[in-house]
Amino acid sequence: MSWRENTMPASRLDEQNEIAASLTTDAADALMVARMRLVLAISGLTAIFIDPSGLSGVGHFTWLVFSGYILHSTAIYIFSLLNRPFSQSKLIHWLDICWYALIVLFTGGINSFFYLLFFFAILTASFRWGFEEGARITIASALMLILSGLITETGQDLPRLLLRTTFLLTFGYMSARWGESKIELKRRIALLRDVSRLSNPRFGVDHTITSVLKKTLAFFKGGSCILVMRDKDSATYSLRTIKEGDAEQSINAIEVSAEAASQLMAFPQDHIVAYTRLLGPATPILGGSLTYDSASGRWIKRDEETSQNMAELLETDSFISVPLSLRKGDGRIYVVSRKNRFSKADALFLSHIAEQAFPVIENIEILDRMASEAVTQERKKIALDIHDTAIQPYIGLKMGLSAVRNKAAADNPLIEDIDKLMAMAAQVIGDLRRYAGTFKNASGKIEPIFLVVLRQQAAQVREFYGIDIDVSMEGELNVSDRLIAEVVQVVREGLSNICKHTVAQRGSVKLRCAHGWLKIQIENEGAGTPAADFIPRSITERAAALGGRTQVNSGPDGGTSVYVEIPV
Q1: What is the rounded CA–CA span in Å between residue 495 and residue 489?
Q2: What is the pLDDT, as a whole number, of residue 174?
Q3: Cα separation of 313 and 266, whole Å?
Q4: CB within 8 Å of 225: residues ≥ 6 apart
């Protein structure tokens, strides 16, 4: 059975809840807008029913248009009640302005006060979809109003047409901008909430910093995000780079020389910088280097040459950069882009992200260090316990078997079995000593050897049980040592289940990291008859404790595959 490619993407449970909450909010907004649309449609029809003389040109077609718009609004309201996808479509706003153009045309043209209905479409489009959609609806509404006015226009109506069109464009532009600011504010609040959350301690500081950089890069829609940091104690520099579209990012920083890092630390430590390459010498207002003076709270033009050199170094047309001030060092973050032009507001918000996220990361680092020290002490204790409670009895067992072997006559038929038991006891003693040594002397670099440990376990299964287990890994597992230790235990339990509960002669273990999940597949061949359903309790509980999940699939030939997924 092949590995499933249709597994859930790398969104966490909280991210799923956020998406569900966002969809619920959108549905509630769509229902409110649909309800107001229906109220406006009924109110318009009521107005011409009560006082048709107040409007010129009211006829049978006018009643038909208003009746059609009421049916249209009723249908959308029903779709919203049923939470159908169409109720949240952009097409609705375009249908609205078409109806409004017909209403204006059949109620007096430019003299009709129903031109105010266009504002409803502009407002709803702007505050739901942002500036671009709001601007499109605004321009389309103005064109519809002009067209309706020209069809019914007389000489005296031209100034009114110009005034109402200008008013519509002005109001539409302001609404689109305010709508965009509302959407942008929601995105910023969501990002600040995400980066301020404490990371799961098993992932460590490196994973948390990488996650913050990825979220920052995605928010600004940049090409890359660069973090350079200096440790005051050791005077060493580290560099992290996250690039757009690069799915397999290493979570570990690379150490760089002071000379290379000094180029990225060229700006003064208290400067927030926003740079955009000039479009030309005649347009200095549309680009250049701006530095934020925190003392005066103003932006000033400064460090033009330094910014240009930095842009050449980063091979970009626009970048924003903010300093980091940490307890044990300092640093600087860059977000660069060759497609987008960053603004002063972007640079200030990047500084807010840094101020929000990195104090939390420093606290995580302290907790991580405390946890590592506690783990080291616990490992030493476990190593002593293994030696006293597990290894010694096996040594006694081996000595007893050796004594029995010496007493047995040369032609005793059990000699071969006793020799096998002695070899097995010696193997177990060696494994336990290596295991105790791993606990006692474990360092942060467990990843290069854990695959060797699993293959040694597979070799032991092959020797004692005659089961051929293939252990393979795709790519690199960029996870912490504590998580790797949990993975080793999961695989060992899976191999133990194959030995105890199956008659398989072959099996396999596959590991890989993909889309934010560490995926483990443990499978064994079948015996020709369907296997009984079961749930590996120990593996399931261990995976659940790590925030993951377990699934068991059985084939018609009795082959079984256990899938374990752990978020990283």
Answers
A1: 10
A2: 94
A3: 12
A4: 213, 214, 216, 217, 241, 242, 333, 334, 335, 336
Q: Which CATH number fits domain 443-568: 3.30.565.10, 1.10.3720.10, 1.10.10.60, 1.20.120.790?
A: 3.30.565.10
With a cut of 70, list the residues of the chain below it in pLDDT.
Answer: 1-25, 51-59, 153-156, 196-204, 247-251, 279-287, 363-376, 378-391, 434-449, 478-482
User: d(Cα 303, Cα 272) in Å, to the nearest integer?
Assistant: 11
Q: What are phi and psi of 155, to 5 degrees?
A: -60, -35
Pairwise CA distance, residues 165 & 375, whole Å: 71
pLDDT for the residue 300: 86
**Confidence at residue 197, expressed as pLDDT on a 0 to 100 scale:** 65
Helix (H, G, I), strand (E, B) or coil at 220: helix
What's the pLDDT at 303?
A: 74
Distance CA 258, CA 408 (A): 72
Question: Can you read off the two tokens belonging to residue 243?
Answer: 């690039």
Q: What is the pLDDT of residue 279?
A: 65
pLDDT digits (tens, 9 = 90+) for 258-315: 888 888 888 888 889 999 887 655 445 556 888 887 777 788 887 788 888 898 888 8
Q: Are strands 506-514 and 468-474 parallel, antiparallel or unpaired?
A: parallel
DSSP notation for 401-418: HHHHHHHS-TT-TTHHHH
Report field, pTM of the whole predicted structure over 0.85:
no
| Residue 389 structure tokens | 């409670």
Distance CA 358, CA 102 (A): 57
Contacts of 498 (CB under 8 A, 6+ apart): 461, 467, 469, 504, 507, 522, 524
Lookup: tokens for 495? 């191999």
Instruction: State CA 178 to chain mean position distance.
Output: 27
248: Cβ–Cβ under 8 A, 6 or more apart, which residues? Answer: 475, 476, 513
Q: What is the mean pLDDT of the chain?
A: 79
Q: In this structure, are residues 153 and 160 in contact, taking their beta carbons and an 8 Å threshold? A: no
- Cα–Cα distance, 27 to 32 (Å, whole number): 9
Domain boundaries, the chain: 13-193, 201-368, 443-568
- Residue 335, phi then psi, degrees to nearest 5: -120, 120
β partners of residue 410 = none
pLDDT of residue 14: 47
Distance CA(174)–CA(154), nearest Å, equals 30
For position 172, what pLDDT does the model report? Answer: 92
Short-list 343, 437, 308, CA closest to 382: 437
DSSP string for residues in 435-500: HHHHHHH--S--HHHHHHHHHHHHHHHHHHH--EEEEEEES-----HHHHHHHHHHHHHHHHHHHH
So what CATH class is 201-368?
alpha beta
Task: Assign 106 to helix, strand or coil.
Answer: coil
